[in-house]
Amino acid sequence: VLLFPEGTRSVDGNLAKYRRGPFLTAIEEGAAVLPMHLTNANLLLPKGTFSVRPGEVRVTFGDPVPVEGKTKGDARAMAAEVEAWTREQAASAG
């Protein structure tokens, strides 16, 4: 299952604050979170259209974030952790 914690596509390519919903789902289901960053996806599938433009998207995967021992109250901290990783990836792809 692929979930996007921003909740929507970005108009300008900047990341929005991550929501906790996908992390709650991971905790409830006992499934680790596998962070990923898509570079250039906003250029090839702009917000407001379903028309895909030709080009390359770079996909970077982070280390799995385990959910063992986590409760629903940990979802925001998990979101912040994965968001920070994603922002690091975006800055280095820049």
What's the quick description here?
The protein is of the alpha+beta class. The chain has helices at residues 21-29, 41-44, 75-93; strands at 36-39, 58-61.
Key structural traits:
two-stranded antiparallel ribbon; 94 residues; elongated; alpha+beta
Strand fraction: 5-15%
**Which regions are unreliable across 5 or more consecutive residues at pLDDT < 50?**
none
Terminal CA distance reads 28 Å
> How would you spell out the order of helices and strands?
HEHEH
What is the C-alpha radius of gyration, as a whole number of Å? 14 Å
Give the integer mean of the pLDDT values: 92
Number of helices: 3
Annotation, overall tally of beta strands: 2
Strand order of the largest sheet: 1-2
Largest sheet entry: 2 strands, antiparallel
Assembly state of the chains shown:
single chain
Judged by helices, strands and strand pairing, the structural class is alpha+beta
The proportion of residues forming helix, as a percent range, comes to 25-40%
Shape: elongated
Please provide a written account of the structure.
The chain is built from three helices and two strands; from the N terminus they run H-E-H-E-H. With 94 residues, it is α+β, with helices and mostly antiparallel strands. The protein has helices spanning 21-29, 41-44, 75-93, and strands spanning 36-39, 58-61. A two-stranded antiparallel sheet has the order 1-2. The longest helix is centred in the C-terminal third of the chain and has 19 residues, at 75-93. 34% of the residues lie in helices and 9% in strands. Helix 1 crosses helix 3.
